[in-house]
């Protein structure tokens, strides 16, 4: 496996570090430095296990006793929630391909209290187990969310997608015609998610912009964009072209999972999108498996979006590489 973890990786993490004076140079590592090292090790182990198809080693990284851990896979139409479902999704992923080679390059990462998240670009090579066909995903994008549990950093969420996959609309017969209402607690995180969904549905860029962090560290991974977006202006600009082509949009959340630790929360969502494009305003296109990850950070008493990651999901059988 070819990881490009240069010495600058620690700096790239942008995690809080304690400066050690020369007089204490031989003292044990400060807690923050130990956290940084442990997180980097977990990130490396994740991709090493992914490349090796090692389900046992992968399982050791996850907070398996938390029924809200979740994963969104590139070739899946569902959100995997709870270790049993996450494990089965990894098992299927590992079974579908062999001779896997992974080159994971860290693009951005941050840590806030007991939560850290990584944004990576991954080159994935493999051979399909059943067909013998060569698979090359030259730039897959991934999000990993870790939380500290009993003194150990454990994976709480993974989201991966390949923007080069052909976006496929769904047969109207597969659409959930009357999605059951989602129970929304009277909670600031849920309210922000609801406001963002409303602004997105209304194609209101200004209202969406207000919900993102003003920090330069804010990031977004869009479904079909071949590049990541860094900084609030670029993040919002990533929607402008799409909105310019859309006449109307309806978003229907089908499943929402919210988890919070201190000043960080992460939301994972499965939704239906119904879109009328300006080129064909009388034709509604349906996407019944839009998978989205939000990482929220509380800044100056207000929850704001620090990272956004979305893609159009599909069943593995519906798409041959």
UniProtKB/TrEMBL annotation:
Coiled coil: none annotated. GO terms for molecular function: isomerase activity. Gene3D superfamilies: 3.10.450.50. Residues 43-160, 192-310 form the SnoaL-like domain. Residues 1-25 form the signal peptide. PROSITE patterns: PROKAR_LIPOPROTEIN (PS51257). It comes from the Bacteria. Keywords: Isomerase, Signal. This is Ketosteroid isomerase-like protein. The lineage of its organism: Bacteria, Pseudomonadati, Pseudomonadota, Alphaproteobacteria, Hyphomicrobiales.
């Amino acid at each position: 496996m070819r990881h490009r973890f240069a010495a600058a990786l620690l700096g790239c993490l942008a995690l809080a570090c304690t400066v050690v004076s020369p007089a204490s140079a031989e003292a044990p590592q400060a807690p923050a430095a130990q956290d940084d090292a442990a997180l980097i090790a977990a990130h490396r182990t994740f991709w090493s296990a992914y490349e090796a198809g090692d389900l046992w080693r992968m399982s050791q990284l996850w907070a398996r006793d938390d029924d809200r851990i979740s994963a969104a896979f590139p070739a899946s139409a569902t959100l995997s929630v709870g270790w049993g479902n996450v494990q089965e999704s990894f098992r299927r992923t590992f079974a579908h391909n062999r001779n896997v080679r992974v080159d994971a390059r860290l693009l951005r990462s941050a840590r806030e209290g007991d939560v850290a998240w990584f944004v990576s670009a991954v080159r994935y090579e493999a051979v399909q187990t059943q067909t013998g066909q060569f698979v090359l995903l030259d730039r897959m994008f991934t999000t990993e969310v870790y939380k500290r549990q009993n003194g150990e950093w454990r994976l709480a969420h993974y989201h991966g997608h390949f923007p080069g996959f052909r976006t496929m609309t769904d047969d109207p017969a597969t659409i959930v015609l009357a999605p059951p209402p989602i129970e929304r607690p009277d909670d600031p995180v849920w309210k922000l998610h609801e406001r963002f969904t409303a602004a997105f549905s209304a194609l209101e860029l200004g209202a969406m912009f207000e919900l993102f962090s003003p920090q330069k560290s804010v990031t977004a991974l869009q479904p079909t964009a071949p590049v990541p977006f860094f900084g609030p202006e670029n993040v919002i600009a990533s929607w402008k072209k799409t909105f310019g082509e859309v006449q109307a949009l309806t978003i229907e959340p089908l499943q929402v999972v919210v988890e919070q630790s201190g000043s960080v929360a992460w939301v994972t969502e499965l939704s239906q999108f119904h879109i009328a494009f300006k080129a064909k305003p009388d034709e509604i296109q349906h996407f019944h498996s839009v998978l989205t990850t939000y990482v929220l950070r509380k800044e100056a008493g207000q929850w704001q979006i620090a990272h956004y990651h979305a893609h159009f999901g599909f069943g593995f059988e519906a798409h041959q590489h």
